[in-house]
């Protein structure tokens, strides 16, 4: 990396204060302007993670009331508890949470700049350009500035998950057990926040074993340490489940998997949240009797009811479910028939123009990356990461926000040639 021979993240942070300052000013400045423009403090859009954090603050426990049921494991635990700790430190106002979300995007940019500079370019300037472009993703900026949602937390966790896997592939032979263990703990927390990462985790483990067959003993040791530490980090949640559910439902991450499956796969579903522009959802497809049956007991009983309904629909038309799955894969990367339903029509037009340009840059960036013989391992893992998250999410239902955690890596390919061209231009002007 430019300006340092060290590949240590802490050293990078200490030795590049101007990079930190620039990134801080851009992320927080843009965030504050966006929050002010959309009146985020006075009229915030609050989602379940913040509601559950408020319930914790009010001594009601880790609980969320949804369709007449008390859910004690509805949402991912890390983001809820992070919101809770922010409130404990800085008060119950929405403002600290919004600034915490800015901080998540700031950390995302910092991680990207570090790893891009470490492996993909010798120029800190190029790494900064790419990192800033990734965190200026308009949808991410909107979410961390206007919505009180776990998306900024999910995005930074997903990207550090990919970066850690990449680092392990590159350096597993010489990496210390302490660092491997630390990676395992962080990857476990990331999977707890976004369980769809588990498919990429499995793919990576298999590929690491296959590619490095000649060092099989060392690879197995690394994989075992990662799995053990990841399990230990998640075991905190399992212990909590054991206590809360009196030993009946210990080993689960969330209790609503079949609810989300039914939401995106029922007979009226397009594969998204809404079925049509009348804003009808899966709940509108249920009869009164089915609604009463679902709400009759606890969250696990409700999950079983959604499982029964889902299997019923699969048996009715299995080909439709398969076709819908591929439709959702397409919606993951583009727009669904109900995209833009919550926003003015002009926003959707602007979004489609923006993403058309973005995908052009991304495709050109892939060509540029291959042509210039960049690291093929990063290309392979990046595509594995993107495809695995798309495949895992498409089992359930798909919204635009579900793509955001993979977009930063797409921005790396889209803006790496832009950064290098700019660096070449400025260097030629200097000479």
Folded structure, characterized:
The chain is mainly α. The chain has one domain (9-430). The protein is 70% helix and 2% strand. The protein has helices at residues 9-15, 17-37, 48-57, 77-90, 94-120, 124-135, 138-145, 151-171, 177-193, 197-211, 216-244, 257-265, 288-294, 299-316, 318-333, 345-371, 376-393, 407-430, and strands at residues 45-46, 64-66, 69-71, 147-148. The strands form 2 sheets. Strands 1-4 form a two-stranded parallel ribbon. A two-stranded antiparallel ribbon has the order 2-3. The relative contact order is 0.11.
How much of the sequence lies in strands comes to under 5%
Which strand order spans the largest sheet, edge to edge or round the barrel?
1-4
Helix count?
18
Rounded to the nearest angstrom, the radius of gyration is 22 Å
Q: Would you count the extended β strands for me?
A: 4
Shape: globular
Round the mean pLDDT to the nearest integer and report it: 92
Q: End-to-end span in angstroms?
A: 22 Å
Number of domains: 1
Low-pLDDT segments: 1-6
Reading the helices and strands in chain order gives HHEHEEHHHHEHHHHHHHHHHH
Q: How would you classify the helix and strand content by structural class? A: mainly alpha
Largest sheet composition:
2 strands, parallel
What proportion of the residues is helical, as a percent range? 55-70%
């Amino acid at each position: 990396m430019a300006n340092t021979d060290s590949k240590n993240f802490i050293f990078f942070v200490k030795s590049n204060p101007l990079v930190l300052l620039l990134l801080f000013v851009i992320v927080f400045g843009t965030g504050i302007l966006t929050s002010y423009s959309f009146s985020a403090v006075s009229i915030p859009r609050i989602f379940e993670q913040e509601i559950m954090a408020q319930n914790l603050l009010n001594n009601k426990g880790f609980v969320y009331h949804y369709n007449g049921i008390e859910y004690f494991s509805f949402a991912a635990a890390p983001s809820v508890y992070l919101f809770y700790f922010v409130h404990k430190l800085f008060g119950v106002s929405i403002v600290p949470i919004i600034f915490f979300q800015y901080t998540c995007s700031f950390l995302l940019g910092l991680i990207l700049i570090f790893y891009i500079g470490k492996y993909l370019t010798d120029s800190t300037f190029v790494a900064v350009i790419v990192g800033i472009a990734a965190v200026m993703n308009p949808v991410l900026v909107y979410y961390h500035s206007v919505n009180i949602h776990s998306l900024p937390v999910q995005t930074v966790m997903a990207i550090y998950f990919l970066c850690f896997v990449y680092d392990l592939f590159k350096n597993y032979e010489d990496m210390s057990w302490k660092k491997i263990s630390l990676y395992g703990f962080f990857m476990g927390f990331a999977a707890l926040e976004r369980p769809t990462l588990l498919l990429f985790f499995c793919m990576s483990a298999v590929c690491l074993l296959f590619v490095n067959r000649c060092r099989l003993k060392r690879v197995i040791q690394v994989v075992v340490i990662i799995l053990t530490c990841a399990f230990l980090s998640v075991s905190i949640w399992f212990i909590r489940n054991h206590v809360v559910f009196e030993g009946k439902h210990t080993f689960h991450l969330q209790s609503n998997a079949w609810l989300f499956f039914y939401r995106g796969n029922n007979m009226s579903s397009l594969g998204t949240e809404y079925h049509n522009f009348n804003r009808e959802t899966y709940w509108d497809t249920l009869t009164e009797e089915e609604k009463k049956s679902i709400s009759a007991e606890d969250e696990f009983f409700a999950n079983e009811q959604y499982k029964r309904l889902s299997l019923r629909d699969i048996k009715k038309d299995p080909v439709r479910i398969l076709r819908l799955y591929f439709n959702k894969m397409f919606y993951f990367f583009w727009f669904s028939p109900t995209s833009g339903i919550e926003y003015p029509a002009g926003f959707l037009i602007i979004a489609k123009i923006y993403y058309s340009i973005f995908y052009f840059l991304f495709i050109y960036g892939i060509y540029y990356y291959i042509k210039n013989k960049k690291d093929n391992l990063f290309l392979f893992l990046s595509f594995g990461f993107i495809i695995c998250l798309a495949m895992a999410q498409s089992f359930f239902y798909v919204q635009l926000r579900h793509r955001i955690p993979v977009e930063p890596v797409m921005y790396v390919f889209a803006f790496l040639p832009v950064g290098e061209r700019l660096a070449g231009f400025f260097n030629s002007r200097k000479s």
